[in-house]
Structure formats: C-alpha cells, structure tokens
Amino acid sequence: MDYYKLFDIPATPLADKVSVKKKYFELSRQHHPDLADNADESSVESTLAISSNINKAYKILTNPSLSVQYFLQYKNAITEEEKYPLPNDFLMDMMDINEMLDDAKSSNNQEMIGEVQHNMKVMEDLLYNEVKGIIECKNEADIDEKSMEMLKAYYYKKKYIQRILDGIS
After folding, report:
1. How far is CA 17 from the centre of its chain?
2. What is the CATH T-level fold of the domain 3-74, as seen in this structure?
3. For every residue of 95-156, which 3-state class applies, written as one string?
4. Model confidence over 51-73: pLDDT tens digits?
5. 90: CB partners within 8 A, 6+ apart
6. Is 76 strand, coil or helix?
7. 81-89 contacts: CB < 8 A, separation 24 or more?
8. What angle do CA 169, 166, 61 make, to 5 degrees?
C-alpha cells in the first residue's frame, strides 16, 4: 500500500506532520471499524484492514526515522536484506565508541556511559545536519541521485548509532 497516496501527500523523506495528522483523523472517521456494516462480514474485514493500514501509515509518517526509511524503500533505494557498506572511518569511530562503552559498562562507570551517550547524540545531530536539506525537502523532484545516496548513507549510519544507543539503555 502506498501511504503517500493513502494520505494524499507528496512522497518526501519527512512528511508534513500537520497534513498527516489532519488526514489521519479524516480517514479514521471514514474507515472506523465500529462504523462498518456488521451484517456483512467481508465489509467488516475490509474496514479492519483499511483501518490497520491507516494506523500503520500514521505511525510511519509521523516518526522521522521510520518516515526516512519508508521513503527510501518507496524509492527502491534500500531493501530489507541489503548489506550496506559503511565507510571505514565511520566504522573505526564506532569501534572506538563500542570499546569505550564496554569499558564503562564493565567498570559500571555511569559518568563514562553518559559521556558515550552524549557523544552518540552529538554524532547523530552532525549526521542529520549533513542531510537536513534533503530530509526536509518538500518536492520529490528536487531529490536527485546524489541526494538519495547521501540519504541512504545517513539512514544506515543512524541505524548503527541507534543500535549503540539502544544498548546503553
């Protein structure tokens, strides 16, 4: 299902949250399962399926990370099983951070753990700033092949950073 068409919005990495929210409430009222014709079982099932897609689309389009992922999948720039080669300098930085985190965890050094967490958030912000113009672009036609590659690299780096942050919690 094409969530951009469902919500009648342009295909962009970061959907306009106001438009998405407005359309979500409109679609939810139109396709609410409680309003389905209870006499017709296929109608109820259809309404439940549509309602489920509306809720899933809303969740994806209002979450910046999921929205970028969905956009990249929509444009066939990434696949589920893809093994994206991250740059060596990024991987070396991540290896250093992982070692620092392992040391902090083994010694139960909460200050060092907090420092690693802070450094990861700073790195995440720096990565975002590199592609901010692409992510916040409102016109799909303005996102060229080079921009798509930059967005893809951002997505995989951010995913890697998020795994480390998840490991801290």
Report:
1. 14
2. Helix Hairpins (1.10.287)
3. HHHHHHHHHHHHCCCHHHHHHHHHHHHHHHHHHHHHHHHHHCCCCHHHCCHHHHHHHHHHHH
4. 999 999 999 999 999 999 999 99
5. 157, 160
6. coil
7. 84/152, 84/153, 84/156, 86/153, 86/156, 86/157, 86/160, 87/153
8. 125
Minimum mean pLDDT range among 25-34, 111-120, 130-139: 25-34
Question: So where are the chain's domains?
Answer: 3-74, 88-168
* Amino acid residing at 10: P
Four-residue CA torsion sign, 39, 41, 47, 51: positive
CA distance 12 to 61: 10
List the Cα angle 27/30/31 in 5-degree steps. Answer: 85
User: pLDDT tier at 37 (50, 70, 90 boundaries)?
Assistant: low
